[in-house]
Amino acid sequence: MMAFEQTFLLTQVLISWALLTETLELLSWRNLCTKVWKGADLTIDGKVWPIGFQAVFEFLIQDKMYLFLLGTRLLLALLLLGIAGGSALHLFYVAPYQNNLLVFLLFMLSAIVYIRGRGTVHGGSDFMTLAILQGLLLSQFFIESPGLSKCGLMYIALQNIVSYFIAGVAKIRNANWRTGLAFRGILAGTLNIQIPIPVSLFVTWGLLIFELSFPICLISQKVCSVFIAIAFSFHLANAYFLGLNRFVWAWLASYPALFFMAGLKF
Amino acid sequence: MQGHGYFLVGIYLLVLAIVAVSRVRPVKSRVFFLLRAFFPSWKFFEDCGYMPILQARTKNTEWQTMIEQPKKKVWFLFFFPRGNFCLAAQSLVQQFVSDLDELVESHLSDSQIEKELTVLVSYRLVSNLAETLLAERSLLSGDSFQFRILISFPGEPDRPPEELIRSPQLSVGIV
Prior knowledge:
The complex is a heterodimer. By secondary structure, chain A is an all-alpha fold. Chain A has helices at residues 4-28, 30-36, 39-42, 51-60, 63-88, 100-116, 124-141, 146-172, 175-178, 181-191, 197-212, 221-242, 245-252, 255-262. Chain A is globular and about 55 Å long. Chain A starts with a helix and ends with a helix. By secondary structure, chain B is an alpha+beta fold. Chain B is 42% helix and 14% strand. Chain B is built from 5 helices and 5 strands. Chain B has helices at residues 4-21, 30-34, 81-105, 110-119, 121-136; strands at 51-57, 64-65, 144-152, 162-166, 170-171. In chain B, strands 1, 2, 3, 4 and 5 form a 5-stranded antiparallel beta sheet that branches. The longest helix of chain B has 25 residues, at 81-105.
């Protein structure tokens, strides 16, 4: 069974890698971003905030501030990766809960970047990124109490399970998914591929059964390993066919916590 | 995991399933919209019956589809900025379509809708997007451009796309 501290470290390593690669991508298309998501246009969104926050919001979404925030986020992600990675590889040792300031700053910077993107930039992978950072902060906040500290990792694990389960429930309620039309439509719309309905039905129901049965992964770590392997393959396929590479790294960072929770004895 | 651990997790997931299947009204608060990364919605591809397509043109060009997924290079898994830009751009177009739906449902007159459109953040951002992508393709030769949103139905290959909205002629800004 993976120890709590090992899980904590590994989660920090993987989420810092996800943040690092995401920030490099955002920096790469920063010119496009500031031409489309112009600070001057986004200030209209600022009117929804209480008066005291409007000035802060308008300051933070300025185009030059955006570049500064991304640059800072890149450096902090690299630092966390270095420290957590070095500890994980036994090159030196820094207890994972001592990185709490880094995690907190990365959480705040990520939140600002996503708010500037009008909620999210990458959709679901942003949700998972923030959920993982929240879970790490929760664990660190209760570090004096071993029992409560595990709650942070459990939060990450439950968000992971819920992400698959709710996705399955939402699909199975939709007749287009039950009849295979939705999956066929996605392939037609994104890849210009038409597949026969029986093939689409087979793939669709395989996916639905997988997503809806995901909570079973908590039975044991062996069963959890199988679910993680299938889930990771699913994300790799989505990355290849739909371009959703960010989901691979965000969800990968949540698997150590899931594996840890499957090994817990209540 | 043993004993009442299963029970607790089972209860939690049962509550989530009940919430997932029950009818929910979407929260229309703009603050909540900006903070939605803190409130994950894991309903991916819940409704994929239609897909909005952004097209743009200038006086000298025909309508062109603006957002096209780039080919993947070997390292796309680690670094795919153009692909993620296109996904973010497509989400922006989707946001605009949702905002437009809300405007139409508010039963305003056409002239009022036109007026409200120009102050919609998503309308401005989609205008910027169309202008930026036209400029990228060196198609912005004059001083104006126009965009439109088509709705396609990928699951119905025989059904042609339908035009949802067409912008007036827009002045080229400093891009």
